[in-house]
Amino acid sequence: MSGTHSDAFVFFGATGDLAYKKIFPALQAMVRRGRLDVPVIGVAKAGWDLDQLKARAKDSVMRHGGLDPVAWPKLESLLHYVDGDYSDLATFKEVRKQLGSAEHPAHYLAIPPLLFEEVVEQLMKSGCAKGARVIIEKPFGHDLASAQELNRILQSAFPETSIFRIDHYLGKRPVNNMVVFRFANSFMEPFWNRNYVESVQATMAEDFGVQGRGAFYDQTGTIRDVIQNHLFQILCNLAMEAPPRVDSESVRDEKVKVLKAIPPIQVTNLVRGQFNGYLKEPGVGPDSKMETFAAMRLEVDSWRWKGVPFYIRAGKCLPVTCTEVMGRLRKPPSMVPERVLTSNHLRFRISPEVTIAIGAMVLKPGEEIAGQTIEMIASRTPKPGEMEAYERLLGEAMAGEATQFARQDYVEEAWRIVDPVLKAVTPVQQYEPGTWGPSNMAEVTPPGGWHDPIAAEPIATTSQFPT
Prior knowledge:
Layout: E1 8-12, H1 17-32, E2 40-44, H2 50-63, H3 71-78, E3 79-83, H4 89-99, E4 105-109, H5 116-126, E5 133-137, H6 144-155, E6 163-166, H7 173-183, E7 197-205, H8 214-217, H9 221-239, H10 248-260, E8 270-275, E9 293-299, E10 309-315, E11 322-329, E12 345-351, E13 354-363, E14 371-380, H11 389-399, H12 408-423, E15 428-431
Parallel strand pairs: 1-2, 1-4, 2-3, 4-5, 5-6, 7-10, 8-15
Antiparallel strand pairs: 7-11, 8-9, 9-10, 11-12, 12-13, 13-14
């Protein structure tokens, strides 16, 4: 069914938190842009009727973006609802009835992974899986073995080309902007390789804690929650080769090649931390050793990157909320004394605003012959009304455009890299909220030290300031 647009959208978990915060607003935005004009069938076991679902959807869009006076009535007219148990075949027969003449529905499983097998089996039994696509939310398993089992379940009913593993992070334009910046600018290619790049580091920082999700987080941790997926996606965008074509499989092939070139993480190249106060969070075990911070050193043993270390860190209760990448270049032979010579760098800020900055040395103002580091910056803040990640990804899944979705081999390679350290017993060091993690970071500190993102960026096309 490649190239066929889905003619219905069915989402399981229609009364849940994800639907309320993200899915209904995304659906209204899709209607507003003319990207959704098919039946939308919510499925859940809540004892509701259609009017209650419509009321929930209306409240959702009012609280998350605002009610569109034109798009909302249209979305409301598209809504259907099936209330029933996922273990009951009658529920799925009713879904099939509500689908009417639709032959290529998209089934979105906004439900806990433990329910996937049961729902997929019922979709097959009821005939709902025939000609359909399935969209599932991360996490795609919790280790390599569970990811392989999940893939077995999904592929028992759907071909790989009809499976869309949705991770909202890949729907963010700034994440994909790195790829465009790399391959649409000829000045990047000569230096973006092992000959000139000394090291690459990526930081995903959050200035808040687990926000009432202690029970979930204590089973997940930072490595599973954001590193194995979000930060690995950023790494692939930074390290991949230019695809020979721009079709989805060619692009995804290059991303998988990056992961295949990364050996499993060694315990000596990992630091895990836990913020002071985590054990008091509701749902967290009193003796929990789960990390809320992780930093690691990776190698990408490809022709382009052999010998260049990649450093990744992520954590909660850090000084700022920001995602940023820094690539430091090797120092040139120079008439400037080594003690004052700083590395050139390329800096990508992905959020909260979008920044691309190039760091260079210039002559310091004044009579003294001395250098200083400045940055040339291009920066912008996302504007209201721009397409959000879920709107983009749901629309692409329904259109069969798979570029921004994780393929089976990608998921399994990502788990292969982190599996050894997830299974190993490694120490968890305490750190104070508002700091950049544990103090003992010598094992995983880039040459020249970590670059700590600052809280705000100037909004300008060019600017300069000391770094």
